[in-house]
Structure formats: C-alpha cells, structure tokens
Amino acid sequence: SKKYNMWLQYQPILNTTCKKHYQKMLTTLYVNGNAPTIQSAEQELTDAIFTMLGQRITSKSDMDHATIVIGNIEEISSLLSNDHIARLAEMNEEGYLVIENQGKIIISGNSDAAVLYGVHHLLRNMQLEQDLISLAVFEQPKNQFRMLNQWDNLNGSVERGYSGKSIFYQNGKIVKDKTRIKDYARYLSSVGINAISINNVNVWEEESYFITKKYLPEIREIADIFRAYGITLYLSINFASPMTIDGMSTADPLNQSVQNWWKDKIAEIYHYIPDFGGFIVKADSENRPGPFTYNRDHADGANMLAKAFEPYGGKVIWRCFVYNHLQDWRDRTTDRARAAYDHFKPLDGKFHENVILQIKNGPMDFQVREGVSPLIGAMPNTNQMIEFQVAQEYTGQQIDLCYLLPQWKQILQFDTYIKGAGTTIAEIVAGTIHTYKYSGIAAVSNIGGDDENWTGNTLAQANLYGYGRLIWNPDLSAEEIAQEWIVQTFGNKKEVSNTLGEMLLNSWEIYENYTAPLGVGWMVTPGVHYGPNIDGYEYSKWGGTYHFADRDGVGVDRTKETGTGFTTQYAEPNQNLYNDVSKCPDELLLFFHHVPYKYTLKNSKTIIQHIYDTHFKGFEQVEDLIKKWDSLADLIDEERFKNVQNRLKQQKNNAREWRDQINTYFYRKSGVADKQNRAIY
Ligand code: BDP
Q1: Do residue 108 and residue 199 come from a single domain?
Q2: 188 with 325, same domain?
Q3: Is 42 among the residues known to form the active site?
Q4: How many whole angstroms from 393 Cα to the centroid of ligand 1?
Q5: At 268, which CATH number?
Q6: Residue 676 belongs to what domain range?
Q7: Are residues 541 and 628 in the same domain?
Q8: What is the pTM of this model?
Q9: How far apart are CA 82 and CA 84, in angstroms?
Q10: Are residues 426 and 511 in the same domain?
Q11: CB 207 within 8 A of CB 238
C-alpha cells in the first residue's frame, strides 16, 4: 500500500516525454558481481523500473550490449575513462559514480554498498523526473557512521515509540517473519544508513541474553538481512552482563575474570556474526549499571570492551548521556546541562581507538530547543559522534507535525570555534577537524509496526528520510530534502509540493510557538512527555528544576558569575555570547538566564508579551496547517490524507491546551496583563 511504501513509491511516470526517454534508455542490464548487496541493488533496480515504466529490463551476459551496467569499480573499470577512475579513487569507500556515456548508464562505486547507493541515486532522479542524458554524478558520504538506534524491547514495546509495536520483537520473542525487517533495511539503504543497533539502550533483564546462544542464531539472521543492504548490526548491552548472565559477583572492568568473560563473549558473537559492528553502552545513566559502582571511570569501562573487540575490528559506542537524575537544586554545580562535559571532558585521550563517544545534540535531552552540547568537539583525542532523535519524544510524538530537518541543520551548522572559526559541528562529527579514526551521526529511530505506515503520522516519514539524506550530505537544505521526499512520497504535483513544503518547513517553529518558550524546555507531562505540565518536573526529584519561574521572572541562570557556570563549557566567543544576557540570542535566553517578566528581548517585546504572542500565534498556525492540508484533499489518496487530517485535529487540541496553560500560568505568576487583552484566565 502507499503508506507502507514510504518514499519508495516508484509510481508510474506520468510525464510522457520523460517516460519515453527512460523507456528507451533502460532496457537491458548487466550486473557485475553477486555479493548480497549487489543482488539487492539489481532487485531494487529491476522492480522499480518495472513499476515506474511498465517494462521488464532484460539481463545481458556482456557489458557491451547492456544499456545499464552496475558493479564494483574493480569489476567494470574497462568501461570507465581514466578520469572517472581517478575521481572515484579519490573518494571514500562508499563513494559512487552514476554516469551516462553514449546512451549507456554506468553505476559503479568503491564497494558493493556504494553500487547500491548509486542505484538509489538513479531511482531518486527518475522519481523526480530528471533527465538522464549526460549524467555525471560523483558522490560520497560526508559522515563515516550513519546510524540508527532502535529502542525496541523484546516484549514488543518500543521505548519512546509512537508508531506502534516493534517490527523486530513480539511477545518476548524475535519475530519469525522478517519481511518487514527486510523492507526496513531497503528504506534505510535508500538514504544511505550504514549501521543499526536493534535493541533499546536500556537493556533490561532478558535482552541481556541477546549476546548468548539463546538469541545469537536468530540475531545472525537479522544481521544477514541488514548486510545485504550495506548495514552493519550492533547490539546494546547491559554493562553488568557477567553478573546477570553468568552470576558472577562483579562487573568491575579492571577485574581479570570480568575482562576474560567479555573476551570470550565477544569471540562467541563473532563466531555467529563475522562482521558484527559492536556494542552500544548506556552505563551509569538513569539507573543502568556502569563502572561507577566499582569506583572506575568511563574510560575503564569502555576500554575493557574495546580491548576485547580489537582482534575483530568491533567498536564500542559509549553514550555520554550520563547525569545524576536525582538532583539537588540547592547545589547548582549539579546542573544537568553540565553533566556530560563534566564527566567526559577530563577523560580525553584515555579511550582506545575503537571507542566512539555518542553525545546527544544538546546538553539536556532532545528538547524542542536547546543549545548545542559543548562536549562535541571538546575532546580532540577521542572519537565522537552526535546523537539526534528522529522519534519525536519531546516534539509532538508523531501526533503533532514537526519536521526536524531545520533543527538538525542549525545544530550541524553551529560554529563551536573550538579550533577557530569554521569548527562547525558538521565538520567535527565528519572527523575533519580532529581527525578521528571513527565518527559520524546516530539517531533514535521513529518507526514501528502496528500500522502499515511505519511512523504513525505519515508526515513523520519525512524525518526518517531527511535524517538519512542530511547525514549523507549536510550541505543539502531542509527545503531540498523536503521537496525530494514530497515528490517521491506523493507524486510530482506542484500544489502538493508547495503547500506541504511550507507546512513542513514551518512546523518546528509552530511547535515551539505553542510549547515551552525561549529555550526553557521541559514543561511536559512527566513520564509521557506529551502535553503541557508546567511544574510537572519543576519540583520533582527526577531531573528537577528547569524553569525557576517565580513572581519576578523565569529562566535558569547558567552564567559563570551567578549561575551554574554551564556557559564556561563553551569556547569563546560562544561562552561570552551565552553568558552575557545582552548578547544571548532570544530563542535560548531562558536556557541561560533568569530574567524579569518585563525584560525586553531583542525582538523588542517583553518576555511576558512574547510568551502570550507566540502562544496565540502557534495555535492559529495549527489552524492554518489544517486548512492547508484540507486544500490537498483531492491530490492525496484517502488513506494517507485521513491519517494526517486526524493527527492535525489532535494537534489542534494539544496546541490549545498548551496555549491556555502556558498563558494562564505566566499571567498568574507575573500579574502582567496581555497588551491585546486576549482571553487568559
Ligand atoms: C530520554 C528518554 C528515555 C531514554 C533516554 C536515553 O526519555 O526513555 O532512555 O533518553 O537516551 O530522552 O537513554
């Protein structure tokens, strides 16, 4: 069905000139090699051409008589000019070329996976109805690791999953029918994802056994599926596994028998999965076990595993989401925002070269708006990657529309100045600033399998698509990516492209308008994280104290002089930019400063008036989203149309609730009336 096919609709090409052109060019295929990835590429190409053009491409046994040739560079260099070969040689392992030469299309690359990416490049161009004559594309990914983290549990639930149950597990078992996993692998490879971890970072009792004989034979099957799409498999582990699995008395990373236990364990895993990627570890975080129990640090913990992985080329992806979740607001140095930097920065240079630190994009936790994590780039001698959240935990849970590409773009473009101007997050995680051995980008996935459409809200598919495209090429704009996605998903219709493009691009700002203001974050219902609850976390022992609203003002003082000192974790000039209230950008003001309600923003409004205005506006913007979507009724199939229409209706209720609660709360705290006298109670 259309909702199941996401952006790989391969709809029949309607434009007749274009269709004739393709039909003429794409008749016969020669495939070099038979590695699983090459077979996937061939399958995708032949199936897609059949649905788009209504013609079956025929296989040729020699290159000369084929109109398309695909294969690894080693196999088909005879068809390429010296110049082509030289250009390919300059690119990384996943670099590919797609060229047209005298009526023949050649897709080649530096690896089998690269060929698959090249095939998807061609298919994307065709769906966008581009000309194929004199194509000369040379592409390589900017980031080495392009990863997704599934937060799926064996019982079939998905932590922070808003799209139904897991496609990997059901009722305590790995699913027998793995068709859906295979299709997921297809979608991921079409946007260049090359690594996946398939279980929740919170590893509870039974998932600890994933690294044992009980589950490894079936996990191997999953690894085989992903391998055929160029995707390497990783597992999240329980740091206390030696105790949980084998009843040992300790998991101390410096204990010899613990080290031996892991060595044997990792050897066993490679026996099943020879190209196993490695582990993701959430340790000493939110009640998960870790090295702190034994008075060891995180380098001790990570290095123990890294050593055991060395003979196999495996990696340890160590998460930096480490903070004391039971904070004491009387001690400002326990500011949660400071935690990752305070824990990890002193350990720079102590990690083995096959350890990669995975750092959330912000210092807190995937809020609608946060500063960029100052830890990223601050450890020149330690591999790092950034972590995004495609799942919309704090951004509307795939009920509310929130296209996250503009947010991710902004984060990647952020200049840390750590090594002078131009030290952007994009360059740091691409490994071009500190020359990391391994680096890249990971994100929490947003898919599930209850509903055929994968993401609950059909429009949330844009975030998954966009995530892959952006991390392959961070220079693509949020708009370009939206347009690519729209055309492939809903067909090439101007009105849909225009209207939906506008809806997507404004949606993050709209969401921000009616939720927590000016970077303060966290005014959500505790636990579920959807809907407003302004003081829900404010006085709770879990996390604690995020907005400090009182009768005089609002915001968290994180300055050097009077606050938590978090601002000092940034390099200059960012440190000063955030520390100085007169310079701090409006959108983050309350993240860094506690200010009176009548404080005037750079946009010339007072804080309190800004809160009222954005909240009234945000609600109206949601009403406008509904109108816009309704105007597309005749251009979109009923099923997907209704799905989104229904979500937008729920979004409107949510926006109303946020608007009213936020406005009322701040009116009552401040006693300052709205200048426009709108209804606030
Ligand atoms: C938070 C989620 C929680 C995750 C945690 C994490 O609320 O469910 O376990 O992040 O990243 O955002 O480990």
Answers
A1: no
A2: yes
A3: no
A4: 9
A5: 3.20.20.80
A6: 492-556+594-681
A7: yes
A8: 0.98
A9: 5
A10: no
A11: yes
Strand partners for 402: none
Q: Quick check: is 356 in a domain?
A: yes
CB-CB contact of 8 with 488 (8 Å): yes
What tens digit of pLDDT does each residue of 263-311 get?
Answer: 999 999 999 999 999 999 999 998 899 999 999 999 999 999 999 999 9
Tell whether 152 and 126 lie within a shared domain.
no
365 is catalytic: yes
Pocket perturbation via mutation, ligand 1, pick of 202, 288, 537 by most ligand atoms within 8 A of CB: 202
Q: In the chain, how many domains are there?
A: 3
In this prediction, does ipTM exceed 0.90?
Answer: yes
Final residue in a domain of this structure, among 80, 104, 139 = 139
Q: Are residues 126 and 193 in the same domain?
A: no
Q: How many CB atoms lie within 10 A of CB 54?
A: 11
Distance of CA 360 from the midpoint of ligand 1 (Å): 10
233: left (phi over 0), alpha (psi -120 to 50) or beta: beta
The token duo for 407 is 């947010």
Instruction: Please say if 400 is a catalytic residue.
Output: no
Task: Encode pLDDT of 578-607 as tens digits.
Answer: 999 999 999 999 999 999 999 999 999 999
- The upper half-sphere exposure of residue 190, i.e. CA atoms within 13 Å in the direction of its Cβ, equals 27
In a domain, 461, yes or no: yes
Q: Three-state SS across 544-578? A: CCCCCCCCCEECCCCCCCCCCCHHHHCCCCHHHHH
Rounded average pLDDT over 408-433:
98
* 471 and 519 assigned to the same domain: no
Same domain, 627 and 641: yes
Ligand 1 site residues, Cβ closer than 6 angstroms: 159-160, 201-202, 282, 286, 321, 365-366, 393
Distances (CA, A) of 363 to 239, 320, 321, 329, 606: 23, 10, 9, 17, 27
